[in-house]
Design a protein that fits this description.
The protein contains five helices and ten strands. With about 270 residues, the chain is α+β, with helices and mostly antiparallel strands. The protein has two domains: about 120 residues, no CATH class; about 130 residues, Alpha-Beta Plaits (2-Layer Sandwich). A hairpin with a 3-residue loop joins strand 2 and strand 3.
Amino acid sequence: MTAQTLYVYAIVPADSPAPTGTGIDGAPLHTVNSAQVSAVVHTHHSGPYEGPDEDVKRWVLEHSDVIEDCWSHASSVLPVSFNVIARGSDDAGATAADQLKSWLDDAGDDLSQRLADLAGTSELRVEITLSTEEFPQHDPTVTQLTADLEEKPPGVRRLLEKRLQKVQKQVTDAAADQLYPEYRARLAAQCLQLQDYASAHRPAGTVSVLSAACLVDSAHISRLGAELTSIQEETPSAHIRFLGPWPPYSFVDIDAGVTSESRDGAA
């Protein structure tokens, strides 16, 4: 049988309310406490969560639900990645709780400072794309090719349509490259921090301008929204996704040292 371990969800200030609800697969939650910070965990009796994609998606969502519950009740939260498991040490005669508490004690000053820095903040994600059909419609080459299509027989028209699509993509790509630094600077001016990331959800027929994780003051989320509204009004063919608010997943990298094992996956 696998030795008892602790599955770790998040780090919160030591004076935070006790966790409510349950964790992955209904596991009861509790905390391991040090003087300055606490780890929200459940007692675990197996290895990392692995299995069919649908099961993994459900486990990741349940993991995230715990973090968001902590975020709603504590003054601040440091999310821990999916599948971080604290283990005991036979050599030291220490349980998983002993090992985790030792790490919390050693890292307490740093973790407490990071919690303080993130208090009152939220993460939002912004994805801006341009439609390859709508954006370049006023480009002279595109306008001419579109007009030519109306006068050609079906066989020639199919060739021109392929050329038109290629030109539309080229024009939109060039515009996206030009707009990226401007849009990024405008969003960054409304954020405490901003990080680019690769989006897996770009709509068909579009070119990405930017995908960014934005750390903002929770009281000033509307400022970022207003900037995006301005961008949309300036560029009607832009497609904007504004997601969140969430805990600061992209702005925390918890390393629980030798007491934990982390497998691929993120909350």
